[in-house]
């Protein structure tokens, strides 16, 4: 007859490696989820002043997947998404509310990741040069002009050299950074 100690050794020898593999797989899954969640958070924090960037939109779309089951994050995501889908005019009031709702979402994500970042730091923090907004507006204007050309609602101005004086191009308004006092 085999003693209890012998059975314990046999079971430990058989199930020990299997248990170790299962624990390793569980830890890898947990670490992968944490890394994905951290990527979403870091990307949203880095792009919170550039919400039209591809990275920002990608990270927002991953909130549903990577924070599935996190009730507070899902609730704030739903509120933020509802605001983004409103048909209201995107005026200063709408943008202010959008930034507040994004800050609430980021605060809940930070809490889920056990990061203690004050809500006011999330709301007021971040940096994006005003020149980026200016450049974005110019690119958008150029694309709109090309679209209107393709639709036949705009035309290309021509100047024949020697026939009449060249037109003076309109001057863009100066950026806040360019104003001298």
Broad shape: elongated
Number of strand segments? 0
Biggest sheet descriptor: none
**Cα-to-Cα separation, first versus last residue:** 99 Å
How many structural units, i.e. domains? Answer: 2
- From the alpha carbons, calculate the radius of gyration and give it in angstroms: 28 Å
- Unreliable stretches covering 5 or more consecutive residues: none
Number of helices: 6
Q: Could you tell me the strand content as a percent range?
A: under 5%
- One letter per element, helices H and strands E, the order comes to HHHHHH
Summarize model confidence as the mean pLDDT: 84
Percent of residues in helices comes to: 55-70%
Structural class of the secondary elements?
A: mainly alpha
Structural account:
The chain has two domains: 121 residues, no CATH class; 27 residues. The protein is mainly alpha-helical and 181 residues long. The longest helix has 43 residues. The termini are far apart.
